[in-house]
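Protocol step 4 of 5: obtain the predicted structure for the target chain.
Materials: sequence only (see below). No template structures provided, no constraints applied. The aim of this step is simply to have a reference model before the mutagenesis design in step 5. Sequence pasted as it appears in the construct record:
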Amino acid sequence: MQLIKAAVCHTHGAPLVIEEIRIAPPGAGEVEVTLDAVAICHSDISYADGAWGGSLPAVFGHEAAGRVTAVGAGVEGFAPGDDVIVTLIRACGSCPTCAAGRPVNCATPRDGTDGPLTTAEGRPILQAMDCGAFAEKVVVSARQIVKIPAQIPKDVAALISCGVITGIGGAVNTAHLRAGEDVVVIGAGGVGLNAIQGARIAGARRIVAVDMSSEKLAIAQDFGATHGVLATEPKPWRAAFEALGGKGAEVVLITVGAIPAYEQAPRYLGPGGRAVMIGMPHSGQTARYEPVVMAALGQGLLGSKMGDVVIQRDVPWIVDLYQQGRLKLDELISGRWSLAQINDAIADTRTGSAKRNVILFDR
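Step 4 output (structure tokens):
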């Protein structure tokens, strides 16, 4: 087993600790990836805060890119030297949901504490979200990675692994957004900006961004929003109604985990509209709706996990969009940090002003 540096969570809500841990070599069907970059997602912060439980110690991080440095038995299609992104979607490929084309909802259970990570003394460490990418290396299933062109910068490529596919996939795969439909995107953070891009690529007529920050609304228009509405207004859905020409939206994409956003989302919808739940509230939090109104208007709520992507299908498409200049990725990066600075990067992410902060590893 190798010794690597990682940012380890020992206590929920406490700063991460940079220390040496052990990582096992890849087993059957697995690959080792030496990382160049990992982005900080709000989900990592929520997990580290204890929002969704989980055992400790743990290594979080799941938006990563690097280079394959070892492959386990039975791995086909990958070899040392391949440039790849690493996702948290560990799909078995054979359970009913995988067979139905929904690998993000793979039903095969896996114990992350029985993974490749241990402390220097040999005690188990949770490989959170089947990645554990706040570390110099990861060992993951070969089904979790996708090859990318070598010329794409790894800090940019890392963003595709979660925030990009979640936002774009929510608009395209979950909402099944059709050309000419009007869209409201609640939240203009990293996922929200990609939801806006997904709506634009899908041919939305008007895209209204809703956020607490006027600065973020201005950025949202750079990414394709046609209008911006401050969520701090007394009834922001009325402003969105006016922006859409006196009608409700066909699609509302909720990209934040705030309960008020969930409770207000149906108010932005027109008859027959659908609200897509992308942002992740903390466990135990609940939202209230008036179901008779939604039933009478034929409206619906749809859950979207990781944009319902099939990474082997959707990532190459997204990479092509970026290389053609039709998708903004470089502009999503707010700051670049070292692993030693990860707690500062997390603190900066908590402020809500950052689109995506990225940790770069020395190679």
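Step 4 remarks: Residues 52 and 284 are 9 Å apart (CA to CA). The chain has two domains: 2-162+308-360, 176-303.
Proceed to step 5.
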